[in-house]
Amino acid sequence: MLYGEETRTLLLQNIGGIGNMTVLPANCPPEDVFAFDTGPGNMLIDGLVTHMSGGKSKMDAGGAIASRGHPSEQLLDLLIQEPYYYQSLPKSTGRELFGSAYIARLLAYQQKNNLSDEDLVATVTMLTARSISDSYRRYVRERYPADMLIVGGGGSYNPVLLRYLQAEMEPLGVQVLTQEQLGQNSDAKEAVAFALLADYTLARRPNNLPAATGASRPVVMGKISYP
Predict the structure, then answer these.
(1) What is the pLDDT of residues 113-159, one digit of tens each?
(2) CA atoms lying within 13 Å on the CB side of residue 120
(3) Which residues is 178 bridged to in the sheet?
(4) pTM for this structure?
(5) Taking the CB of residue 65, how many other CB atoms lie within 10 A of it?
(6) Would you state the torsion angle of the CA atoms of residues 148, 153, 158, 164, taken in this order, to the nearest 10 degrees?
(7) Angstrom distance (rounded) from CA 123 to CA 114
């Protein structure tokens, strides 16, 4: 309702702790919309920075650390072999895979291979971008060649991640823009979405997309309570 277009296929990429992509084929009915988690968003970046700073910093603000490093292609080649990336849709992931145990393995690799903090943060930042472009190639491109990837969430405020993402997606013919560049707001995105869901609930209209979530049927989600 908010983003669908008649002539262009759009990808909505949220980058929170985990990255997730919603595919809006041009002029599609609701049943053709699908979505899935692409892999880590900010989770690995945040976890590493928290460890490296002794808890003083919780994120790589402005991509400052990654900007001083260079992604390790050797490590990237290892990380992109994670089986999650090859699972069929629908699928989702979270901290149970890309949490503290995963970060401990990254730190062990760093120590063994004398990788700098900056290079390690740059590498996992590139991993987020690479997992998004890999997901597009694997699950979307053949069926729905996209025109634009619209990035929202906390990761959209990381200019290094955006630069990596542009380098990955634009050779595939996909323009990368942020919510703000389209006059929207990443901080308000979920609030707007929940207001729309609530409006559908009040009207007793189905407000889920089974193709996106794997649900068995359309339902009216939400509960209305009156004092």
Answers:
(1) 999 999 999 999 999 999 999 999 999 999 999 999 999 999 999 99
(2) 23
(3) 151
(4) 0.93
(5) 25
(6) -40
(7) 14
